[in-house]
Each structure stands twice: as C-alpha cells, then as structure tokens.
From TrEMBL:
<feature type="signal peptide">
    <location>
        <begin position="1"/>
        <end position="21"/>
    </location>
</feature>
<dbReference type="InterPro" id="IPR000560">
    <property type="entry name" value="His_Pase_clade-2"/>
</dbReference>
<keyword id="KW-0732">Signal</keyword>
<feature type="transmembrane region" description="Helical">
    <location>
        <begin position="430"/>
        <end position="463"/>
    </location>
</feature>
<dbReference type="Pfam" id="PF00328">
    <property type="entry name" value="His_Phos_2"/>
</dbReference>
<dbReference type="InterPro" id="IPR050645">
    <property type="entry name" value="Histidine_acid_phosphatase"/>
</dbReference>
<dbReference type="InterPro" id="IPR029033">
    <property type="entry name" value="His_PPase_superfam"/>
</dbReference>
<protein>
    <recommendedName>
        <fullName>3-phytase</fullName>
    </recommendedName>
</protein>
<keyword id="KW-1133">Transmembrane helix</keyword>
<keyword id="KW-0472">Membrane</keyword>
<keyword id="KW-0812">Transmembrane</keyword>
<dbReference type="GO" id="GO:0016791">
    <property type="term" value="F:phosphatase activity"/>
</dbReference>
<comment type="similarity">
    <text>Belongs to the histidine acid phosphatase family.</text>
</comment>
C-alpha cells in the first residue's frame, strides 16, 4: 500500500472518530444523602463519614462533568469558578439531606485559592475566606422535608392518595404472608434491639427501621453487643436487607396503583423540566443536582421499569448513591443541536462514587433495548407518569387544602363564575328571579288544590258575590241567629 493510501485511510479513521465523538450538553443528578445515625433514634444526624462520602462523590462528578480533561465534560460549563446561571441545586428542608448537599457541592466546585484574591482601589488585597470556598445556594423542594426523622418517607409527601395507596400494602396477601413467615427471625433479634423495639414491634411491619438500626450499629457501634455472633451473622443481615428492601419497594411503588410512587412521579417531572430548559435556553442551564432519600430512587426505579431489568433496582440504594440523566449528542456542530439529534442516557451507581471505583453504569429506561433514548421518546415515555405542575399534583393526590386550596377553587371556577355573573344558583342555570316566580306559582297551585279538596269533603261550593250578598240580606231579616253562619 502506498504512503498516500495509508495517509488517506488514517485521515478517514480520524474523521470517523470525530463524526462519532459524543458531546454532553447537560445533566440532572439525583443524589442520596450520606451515612447518618439510625432512624429509630431521631433526630437523625449526618455523620463525619457521611459528609466525607458526599464530598468524595461531589469530587467524582467534578472530574466527570466539570473537568475540561474529561470525555464527559459538559460542553461550555465553567471549569474553575462556578457560574450560578449554569448550576442549580435543591433539597428538602432536612438536616441530613441539606448538609449532605453542602458536602457534595464543596467537592463539585472546590475552593479556588488565589483566584479568589481581590485588589481594592487603595491597593490592598483581600483573600476570600476558607481558601476561596465557593458557595452554591440550594433551593427548597416541597416533598421530603424532615424525611430522615420519619420511619416511612411517604409520611412527608403530604399526598393523601399516595398514603392510602402505600398503606394498602399492609392488607395485601404478600405482606400478611411475610409477616407470618418471618416472625421467628425478627423475634430472635430481641437481645440486640430490646432497648429500642418492644417484643410486639419485632416483626416484618418494622422491617426497614429494624434493619436500619442494625446496619448503623455495625458501622459505628464497637460494643460487644454488635460483634459478629450467631445472632448477627452476615447471612442474617443479608436476609434482613432483602426483607427491608421488599417492604420499602412495595410501599414506594405499586404497578396497579402508581400514585404510591408520587415521589418518583414528581422527580420525573422535574427532570423533564430541567433538561428541557437546557435545550430551550441553548445550553445556558447545564447542570441540576437534587438531593433526597432512598424512597424517591425506588419510586422512579419502578416507574421506569428498571426493577424488571436488573434486581439491583429492587433493593434500597446505599448511602451517597447517585443516578443521573445525561443529555448527549453525536452532532459535530457547535451550540445546541436539533432535538432530533439529542438523546438521554440514564446512569446509576450504588454507593459512594470515587475515582478508581466502579463508575456510573448506564441502564436502559422503560424496557427499551438501547442505552441512549432519543429525546422525543424520553419525553413521551416520561410524560405517561410524570407530575409536572402543582395543579397536576393536587389532582393526582386528591388534596384540596393547603397549597391545593386555590387549585381546588380554580377547578370549579368556570361554572361558579358564570353562574354568579348571570345571577344563577349553583348548577341549575336558572336565574333567581325566574326561580322565585315559579316557586310562588307552585305554592299557589298547592293552596288551590287544598281548597278544592276541602270543598269536596265538606260539600261546600263557590257562589257569585251577588248571590252571597242576597244570602246576607236574607239572614239579617231572619229572627234565627244560627242562620248567620257564613264561610270565612
């Protein structure tokens, strides 16, 4: 082969590589909080271990999305100093989750050192505190406030129908069967947890809080009580984890009544809105991070059909777990491509993500066979369950008070306002004046009917006024007083 031919082939290969080069346009991360104290002993607190897990995971995402050397670098995102127009962070009002968010964001955009030094007009220099610590504000999300102090996170969703749907699990045959078959296992744990749970509480109904207490103890409690023994073997802990996972998954998602997965529905709506904003803004908004709890993971796993593809998605995700939706394209141009050239890739990692560990792994959504779903298909599939507005949430949850009071009024607003403007009574379409006339006529008809009935019974009859006058005259002429009786 000639030298020119070899150069042509190499050039063609390079061109093919460029043609297939992927561009990451934006991403949405949902991040679980780090290690914490047990739910059975509120108030829960984020531990130093948990803060470190979040910081390391934030550093991992810095290296993935922020670093200019990464093949997953989000196109156009600021690499050193955070641009708050490009990055949005949110969390519910919860000490564990919000503090986790602070640790994560510190790793995502670490201190910038001397870059934060400013020179004032008088020539003096000012160094930013904490070596140029970068502050990224977090907005509040409504669902999940105080969730880490609650045994079941649905209690913090405020969604009436979701609570009912989830609690229906406790009357299912599946629950009753496990409640009976696992009784001996939970009762055997009494020597380990009798300071927290009574004997009557040691059953499958409290599967999560029992496992959580022991899980936390095995990380932090060095007393002999929680040393490996015949009561607390790895096998027992694995069995307790499987039972806790089944318990929580069935409360977080029900295929026949999806409102129990309201947390995942709401997240899906937020992901749709954020990624759409990235596209419609031409890439001005690039990275969204939301911090939350395990139930939201499980809800979304069920809704997206991930649990049927991999059993990993039926289990409680570990502390500092991450899932993300990445907007990607193979378009070689610059700027935001057409939506027909944009796809969404879902990635997940169970546990703390650190450099050198198992990286985020891509999984197919909605039972599809491909890892990258065209934007239009992603939108269509997500909209089948996503909750994208307060009104939609209120209607799905059946809530009519609180934030839903105005929504409830608005739902019937059209008919009530039109009725008021025309002077109508609600729902009849009849003016008040017409209704009054008809009412009077009905009353008069009833009275006339009663009069006729009385005449028939008592043999009375109506006579002309002139005839009545003649009777009166005749009666006055009579000498018999009894003849003066007349109809009153």
């Amino acid at each position: 082969m000639s030298v020119l031919r070899i150069l042509f082939v190499l050039a063609s290969l390079s061109l093919a590589d460029l043609t297939n080069a992927e561009r990451v346009l934006g991403a949405y991360i949902f991040q679980r909080h780090g290690d914490r104290t047990a739910k059975a002993w509120p108030p829960t607190k984020l531990t130093s271990l948990g803060y470190g897990q979040e910081y390391m995971t934030g550093t991992f995402f810095h290296d993935r999305y922020i670093s200019s050397n990464s093949s997953y670098h989000i196109e156009g995102i600021s690499t050193d100093t955070v641009n708050l127009a490009q990055v949005t962070a949110s969390a519910p009002q919860d000490d564990v989750i919000e503090t986790s968010g602070e640790g994560f964001l510190q790793g995502l955009y670490p201190p910038i050192g001397s870059v934060a030094t400013e020179t004032l007009r008088n020539g003096s220099t000012v160094q930013s505190p904490m070596n140029g610590y970068q502050l990224i504000p977090m907005s509040d999300v409504q669902s999940g406030s105080g969730s880490e102090d609650n045994a079941w996170l649905q209690s913090t969703s405020s969604c009436n129908n979701a609570k009912v749907s989830s609690n229906n699990y406790f009357s299912s045959n599946s629950f009753k069967s496990l409640l009976s078959s696992t009784k001996e296992l939970y009762q055997s744990l009494e020597p380990l947890v009798n300071g927290t749970f009574s004997s009557t509480e040691l059953n499958y109904k409290n599967a999560y809080t029992i496992w959580d207490l022991l899980h936390v103890a095995l990380i932090h409690n060095s007393t002999t009580t929680f040393q490996p023994s015949s009561l607390l073997t790895d096998q027992v802990m694995q069995e307790l984890f499987i039972l806790a996972s089944e318990h929580e998954f069935n409360l977080a998602y029900n295929s026949s009544d999806q409102i129990s997965a309201v947390a995942g529905m709401t997240l899906a709506g937020e992901v749709l809105a954020a990624l759409n904003e990235t596209i419609t803004s031409g890439g001005k908004s690039k990275l969204n991070i939301q911090f939350g709890a395990y139930a939201t993971f499980l809800s979304y796993f069920g809704l997206a059909g991930l649990h049927t593809a991999d059993e990993t998605f039926s289990g409680i995700p570990d502390y500092a777990s991450s899932m993300a939706w990445e907007l990607v394209t193979n378009d070689t141009g610059t700027g935001m491509p057409s939506t027909s050239d944009i796809s969404v890739r879902f990635v997940f990692h169970n546990g703390t993500s650190v450099e050198g560990s198992t990286h985020l792994q891509a999984y197919p959504l909605f039972g599809q066979s491909t890892l990258e779903l065209p934007w239009a298909q992603f939108v269509d599939k997500s909209k089948k369950f996503a909750v994208s507005s307060q009104q939609q949430w209120c209607q799905a949850c059946g809530n009519t008070n609180g934030i839903c009071a105005s929504t409830s009024d608005d739902n019937g607003g059209d008919s009530s306002s039109s009725s008021s403007s025309s002077g109508s009574s609600s729902g009849t379409g009849m003016s008040l004046g017409v209704a009054g006339v008809i009412g009077a006529m009905v009353t008069l008809g009833v009275l006339v009917g009663l009069l006729v009935l009385s005449m028939f019974i008592f043999g009375l009859r109506l006579v002309p006024k002139s005839a009545l006058a003649s009777i009166h005259r005749a009666s006055d002429a009579s000498t018999t007083p009894a003849m003066k009786t007349t109809l009153a």
